[in-house]
Amino acid sequence: MYDVFILGAGFSKAVFEEMPTLAELSSQVLEKMPQLQPIHRMFPNNVEMWLTYLSQNHPWLRESEALRNKANLLERV
Fold first, then answer.
1. Binning pLDDT at 50, 70 and 90, where does residue 9 land?
2. Any long-range contacts for 24-32 (C-beta under 8 Å, 24+ apart)?
3. pLDDT at 20 > cutoff 90
4. Is 17 within a domain?
5. Helical axes 63-76 vs 47-55, angle rounded to 10°
6. Do 1 and 8 form a contact (C-beta atoms < 8 A)?
7. Which residue among 6, 12, 68, 69 is least crowded, i.e. fewest CB within 10 A of its CB?
C-alpha cells in the first residue's frame, strides 16, 4: 500500500512564491483571453472548471458555439 498526498496551490505557493494560486492563474488567463468572460461568470476564478466546460459538448449550444469553445481550449492547452 502507498501513501498518497494531495497538495493544493497553497502548498506550491508556500514552496515557491512565484507559483500562482488557482484564483491568480484564472485572472492571468482571463487577461489573455477576455472571450472567456462568460465562462468566468459561471465559474468565478476557477480555470480548471473553465477547461472542463470548454472540453465538453453541451446540448444547449449551437454547433458554432461548441466549436468556438473547443478552439479556445485547444489554443491554450
1. low
2. 26/50, 29/76
3. no
4. no
5. 130
6. no
7. 6
Q: What is the identity of the amino acid at 17?
A: E
pTM above 0.85, yes or no: no
Does 63 fall in a domain? yes
Q: Across all residues in the chain, what is the average pLDDT?
A: 85
Contacts of 55 (CB under 8 A, 6+ apart): 70, 73
Residue 65 located in a structural domain: yes
Name the residue with higher pLDDT: 10 or 60.
Answer: 60
Cβ proximity of 51 and 77 under 8 Å: yes
**What total of structural domains would you count in the chain?**
1
Rounded to whole angstroms, how far apart are CA atoms 45 and 34? 13
Read off the pLDDT of residues 10-19 as tens digits, 9 standing for 90 and up: 777 788 888 8
Q: Is residue 12 part of a domain?
A: no
